[in-house]
Amino acid sequence: MLVVFYNSGQLGNRLFYFSHFIAFAELKKTKVICLFFNEYSKHFKGTADNICGIYPKPFFSMGSAFARKIISYVLWNLFSFAKKYKINNRFLSTYKPPHDGKMESINYGAKDFANDPNYKEALFTFYDGNYPWYDTTDLSEFEQPIEAFFQTHKEVNEKVNTFIENERKEIDLLVGIHIRRGDYKDFAGGKYYFSDVKYLKLMNEFQANFPGKNIKFIICSNEKISPNNYPFLKCTFSKGSFMEDLIILSKCDYLIGPPSTFSDWASFSGQVPIFHIYSKETELRLDEFATCHGRPFVAGEQKEDTEVKLNKKIKRNIKAGKARRKAAIRQYI
């Protein structure tokens, strides 16, 4: 059984991170415990009464925050003990990925992990990594177990389905616009923090590519958006929760937004082509729409070498990742 403590970003990051461990569990026919997902556990069927993030989901319920705290405390101390004394037997073991803290992290996926001769299966094998890894190919092979595990609840699904049904009346195409603001003002130096003028321009460019089509745009954002900034277009501004926005985006025909694991997950889970906005100069091209299959930020990227771009992001965040890990340590002791 593999135990993972590392806490990586917000919902989108954690969904992809967890998914790659699910792929690993499927390949190795083993179990994983992803303790980093508890903040979002209640929103998904696979984790709502499985707060420790065990995959495959156990038959018994484990929805108690107190139980999770106790289990986390015990596992963390076992991990510390195994690491300190370099224990590597059938009961306790630690695994440090070869890419940890290095630029090769983007080239390390579930299959590489599963085939690594340095990985030793034990009763508890602890993942000793500072930076998350993402599969370099895709998660298509594992879509069924991932989709089943991360099913959303009936109540929110029914609410969104009713909303989408109403929005699709007399509409040919429904386009989801993900306007990521908030933390993106500072993330990567504000590189992906775009104005309403930029989004409006891309929406008009999209509409121009479909003459005669009745198009509606659904705008989802983590910041209040003024309808006055989007004149002459059919627009609906979502007022739902972040989970409703995630499902709404997954049910559109196309998606447009900055690089974000949030909208990438909507693309992956709903199999919706997405177009990423990488700069203020980005112009919309239909041939750059692509469905995300597992590695965030890659769908449709053509203007800059992908590995170089992700390596820069990794390098900027290694220090931040180590700081988050220290914070995680304080959580378990």
Q: Care to describe what's here?
A:
With 333 residues, the chain is of the alpha/beta class. It has 2 domains: 2-144 and 314-332; 154-302, Rossmann fold. The protein is built from 9 helices and 10 strands. It has helices at 11-28, 65-84, 110-114, 143-149, 154-167, 196-208, 242-250, 261-270, 306-332, and strands at residues 2-4, 32-34, 54-55, 92-95, 124-127, 173-179, 215-221, 235-237, 254-257, 274-276. Strands 3-2-1-5-4 form a 5-stranded mixed beta sheet, sandwiched between helices. It has a 5-stranded parallel beta sheet with strand order 8-7-6-9-10, sandwiched between helices. The longest helix has 27 residues, at 306-332. Mean pLDDT is 86; it is low at 298-319 and 328-333.
Topology of helices and strands:
Blueprint: E1 2-4, H1 11-28, E2 32-34, E3 54-55, H2 65-84, E4 92-95, H3 110-114, E5 124-127, H4 143-149, H5 154-167, E6 173-179, H6 196-208, E7 215-221, E8 235-237, H7 242-250, E9 254-257, H8 261-270, E10 274-276, H9 306-332
Parallel strand pairs: 1-2, 1-5, 4-5, 6-7, 6-9, 7-8, 9-10
Antiparallel strand pairs: 2-3
Rg calculated over all Cα atoms: 21 Å
Beta fraction of the residues? Answer: 5-15%
Low-pLDDT runs: 298-319, 328-333
Distance from N terminus to C terminus (CA atoms, Å) equals 22 Å
Characterize the quaternary organization of these chains: single chain
Structural class: alpha/beta
The domain count comes to: 2
Q: Can you give me a brief rundown of this structure?
A:
The protein has 333 residues and is an alpha/beta fold. The protein is built from 9 helices and 10 strands.
